[in-house]
Design a protein that fits this description.
mainly alpha; 64% helix
């Protein structure tokens, strides 16, 4: 190993002191290193890279600590926010299919910890995010009967159709009724027939409404 520069040694000591100060776990530290430098350890970082790691730690933690807001705040995560939002959306899908009991950050982070050995969503790397998305989509398909091929451009509709089938199987909707899925959806959203009239928020409101219905019925069955 080549001799470290005085600057590298100072930054390394500062990073380790910051990790101790803010309670940053080893997994979180490695995630920051990877996000900033694409290295998996400080030992592989050059002078400029290790300085950037320290800057990122200070950017993420020091402003939050002053405000008393050290939380699972995605807005300060160095990763891809769109991917994080997709993971959160899929977790809500499982919740609204009645497959998980809680939609909280704590529940999701517990699931991530079991699957990836990473403490929170904000430290999931790109590769891990892809794996987690596959796991969540597979759970929705295998246990929630979501047919993702129904409309790849509008996955929300795939979820709504799965919820409808669940409600039919739970005896809440008679499949032989003259009303069909779009009529039932219209009761919730106030929209006329035709999915083309639905905005993303309409889909989300409908999913949330039917999710409450599914969980309420399943809870009665458990009792």
């Amino acid at each position: 190993m080549s001799k470290r520069s005085p600057m590298w040694l100072r930054k390394n000591a500062a990073i380790r002191a910051a990790c101790k100060e803010f309670g940053i776990s080893e997994d979180e530290r490695r995630a920051i290193i990877y996000q900033v430098t694409r290295n998996d350890s400080l030992g592989k970082c050059r002078d400029g890279e290790i300085a950037n790691v320290l800057d990122k730690i200070n950017e993420i933690y020091r402003p939050q600590k002053k405000q008393g807001k050290v939380t699972n705040n995605r807005s300060n995560h160095p990763g891809d926010k769109a991917i994080q939002n997709k993971i959160l959306a899929l977790w809500l899908v499982l919740y609204d299919l009645g497959l998980v009991e809680s939609n909280t950050d704590k529940a999701l982070n517990g699931f991530i910890k079991r699957q990836l050995k990473v403490d929170t969503l904000r430290w999931v790397t790109g590769y891990q995010a892809d794996k987690l998305i596959r796991i969540l989509k597979t759970m929705a398909a295998d246990r929630g009967d979501v047919d993702w091929s129904l409309d790849q451009n509008q996955p929300e509709q795939c979820v709504i159709h799965a919820q409808y089938r669940i409600l039919v199987n739970l005896g809440q909707i008679k499949h032989a009724d003259t009303l069909d899925i779009q009529d039932y959806a219209g009761y919730v959203t106030g929209k006329q027939r035709g999915w083309n009239h639905y905005s993303f928020q309409d889909w989300r409101d409908l999913q949330k409404n039917w999710g409450k219905w599914i969980r309420r019925v399943k809870a009665k069955h458990v009792d």
